[in-house]
Design goal:
0% strand; elongated; disordered N terminus; mainly alpha; 223 residues
């Protein structure tokens, strides 16, 4: 996952619709008043998740804090999982685009530093932990989290394709595998070590992925 963004309880039943289904609640980007309602609700949902976790995501309370009718919130999202999923969809849409420094090492370092900046931001770090926790107990949140990662990895895969075109790495290198290898150790440290990530962590993760790519570790691989 790369870059910052902007359910009455976890046992609520999940809808079969997911974030990639255009008919799923909250997956369209509307305009006018509907857009303002969505923005207000998602902001409160994000604040709630960051402060108190998925278990605290109550649609009625979110509606009250957002100044939106409870019926509107229940009709649009239906359950906490759908609301968390829509938040992830919005975060993917709002995330920063990749940068282009012209070389694979610098591009991967930029990606890694963006991941670290996100995971060390006080609000964003708590929010991501809550969303990851939500994905473990709610199918809609899980599908949305997977979609979020797919969107962000594809956004940065271009830098690997460009490197292959320049001859920096084998032409058959799988770009998604390289980008995933940059963020994987950072998320592992974020979730398991308990220590704050640093810019040095970002650079080491990027450099390791770059060396492996040059050695052909992901040549012909499929992420």
């Amino acid at each position: 996952m790369s870059g910052p963004s902007s359910p009455s309880g976890p046992s609520s039943p999940s809808s079969p619709s997911g974030p990639s289904d255009p008919s799923a609640p909250g997956t369209q980007r509307p305009g006018g008043r509907t857009a303002r309602v969505r923005e207000a609700v998602l902001e409160v949902a994000g604040d709630t998740l960051a402060a108190d976790g998925f278990a605290a995501l109550d649609l009625g309370e979110v509606a009250r804090r957002a100044g939106v009718g409870k019926t509107t919130v229940y009709r649009r999202w239906g359950n906490p999982g759908a609301l968390a999923a829509d938040l992830l969809t919005d975060m993917a849409e709002q995330s920063l685009p990749r940068t282009d420094h012209g070389t694979l090492p610098e591009d991967l370092r930029a990606n890694a530093r963006l991941v670290v900046a996100t995971l060390t931001d006080p609000r964003q770090s708590r929010l991501f932990k809550a969303l990851i926790a939500a994905s473990l107990c709610n199918d809609q949140a899980a599908e949305a989290l997977h979609h979020f990662y797919e969107v962000r990895i594809e956004e940065w895969a271009g830098c690997v394709r460009d490197a292959a075109t320049r001859g920096e790495i084998p032409g058959t290198t799988d770009p998604h595998s390289v980008v995933a290898a940059v963020s994987a150790p950072l998320y592992y440290a974020f979730l398991n070590t308990g220590r704050p990530l640093t810019p040095s962590d970002a650079d080491r993760a990027a450099d390791a992925a770059c060396v492996a790519a040059r050695e052909g570790v992901w040549a012909g691989a499929t992420a």
